[in-house]
Write a structure and sequence with these properties.
four-stranded parallel β-sheet; alpha/beta; globular; three-stranded parallel β-sheet; 4 domains; 7 strands; 22 helices
Length: about 450
């Protein structure tokens, strides 16, 4: 007769929904080297015994190779100095936690691999073990402000397309010569949009939304691809939703989080949260066009500042754009007066959107367009923030993203698309056929004919 498991008996894996513990980053033990390495060894041993996440990124294969090549063929045989090779390969996509690991809380083994990697990165950063290149790449506001000056932006964009300059950049700064670097626009989204809502539109609440939106354009959407904000405003206004820009904004902090610079994340929070919270109090919902930025406010900041009521309120009132539209569609407040078919669309669902647990809202929205076939690809593109542009990781990033590019090529679509514009360009880099990605919001605007 099979024995029933008791509440205290160990279980092979958790069948419940994963829960997340707050990040105790202000506790001094968070940065204690002995405590950190003890936890790394504990979790690495669990991962070694499971190996379920081997296909997700290069962090896990790096760990398993170190174990398999050690004298003991166990984690205790791995030189602790080599733990950093594992940590450096993690880009905090969160997929192992959300989709693969059977030992996440509430399981008693309490494995949170991404946040353990974040703790290790924060330890390295606090020690000063960080490259100048990485500080520059994560300083998106400062770099964008400089590179966005009209004369400078033209020079930067031209130089980034020059093989000779890219060779120097790789040698001096460690930015891979073949990596896609973002283009800088001198006319930002904030300059292109009035910042004020269309006075002819009135808010119509539906689906739990207030029906009026404050747009957090994000540093990338503001300076690198401002058309994303223009397309979003056009689509939302077509659906009767007033849109205005938030009063002011700076980088959400995700690049600094990936670097382990948690104090910089806290400073970004202090700049952004009061502005967003005030707008929520005035009856505005918050929408941002970049999945990583939405995830920052939905997950990482609430876990870093669980006691901050304003942070928690922003968490509950910030939306992915397609999530927002589909919430309103449920109550008949989404227009389907499409003028143009899209044909076949190869749609890549980026990691930082998938882990928001909102479902495939972009796919579902585009599927409403008549004459449109969606080929959904749920694999990592390999871009992952700054990972793909770094000399030492670029080849690995292209290998990670190769199955995505192959799927796109095999699909032979009319368009290929990703909510993450950087992931879209990573796919473009893998295709090498002269094609370019089209953002889902741009596709929706095309379908409306506006």
């Amino acid at each position: 007769m099979e024995e029933k498991a008791t509440a205290t008996a160990p279980r092979e894996g958790s069948l419940g929904a994963p829960t997340r513990h707050p990040l105790e980053w202000r506790d001094p033990t968070f940065y204690d080297e002995t405590s950190l390495f003890k936890e790394l060894e504990r979790v690495f041993d669990i991962c070694h015994g499971c190996r379920r996440c081997v296909s997700l990124c290069n962090s896990f294969p790096t760990l398993f190779d170190l174990v398999d090549e050690s004298d003991t063929m166990e984690v205790d045989g791995v030189d602790k100095k080599d733990y950093w090779k594992v940590v450096d390969e993690c880009y905090l996509c969160d997929l192992c936690y959300m989709t693969k690991c059977p030992y996440v809380p509430p399981h008693e083994w309490n494995v949170d691999y991404p946040h353990l990697m974040l703790r290790a990165k924060a330890f390295k950063f606090k020690k000063g073990d960080v490259k100048t290149r990485d500080k520059i790449l994560s300083a998106t506001d400062a770099v964008g402000s400089l590179a966005g000056i009209p004369v400078i932006s033209a020079a930067v964009n031209a130089a980034n397309r020059t093989p000779a300059f890219r060779g120097v950049l790789e040698k001096v700064l460690g930015v891979h010569a073949d990596a896609v670097l973002p283009k800088y626009e001198s006319k930002t989204a904030r300059a292109r949009l009035s910042g004020k809502p269309n006075p002819s539109l009135s808010a119509r609440p539906a689906g739990g939304t207030q029906g009026k939106v404050a747009l957090f354009a994000t540093c990338y959407g503001n300076r690198n691809e401002p058309h994303l904000a223009e397309d979003l405003v056009a689509v939302f206004e077509h659906n009767g939703i007033p849109v205005r820009l938030v009063d002011k904004e700076q980088c959400c902090g995700m690049p600094k989080l990936e670097l382990g610079d948690l104090e910089a994340v806290a400073r970004a929070k202090e700049a952004n949260i009061p502005v967003l919270h005030r707008m929520i109090k005035e009856g505005w919902d918050i929408v941002a066009p970049i999945p990583s930025c939405v995830l920052m406010f939905k997950q990482e900041l609430p876990l870093m500042f669980p006691e901050d009521a304003a942070v928690q309120e922003v968490k509950e009132n910030i939306y992915d754009p397609f999530e927002y539209l589909m919430l309103r569609h449920k109550e008949g407040q989404f227009k389907t007066d499409f003028k143009q078919q899209l044909g076949k669309v190869a749609y890549h669902a980026p990691c930082h959107l998938r882990v928001q647990n909102i479902g495939p809202k972009t796919r579902d929205t585009l599927a409403l367009v008549p004459g449109t076939e969606i080929e959904t690809i749920e694999r990592c593109s390999g871009h992952n923030g700054t990972y793909a542009v770094k000399k030492e990781f670029h080849e690995a990033s292209m290998k990670i993203g190769r199955p995505v590019s192959t799927r796109v090529k095999t699909a032979a679509p009319n368009y290929y698309s990703s909510d993450c514009p950087m992931a879209g360009h990573q796919i473009e880099n893998g295709l090498h056929d002269g094609s370019t990605p089209t953002h889902p919001m741009t596709l929706l605007r095309k379908a409306y004919g506006i």
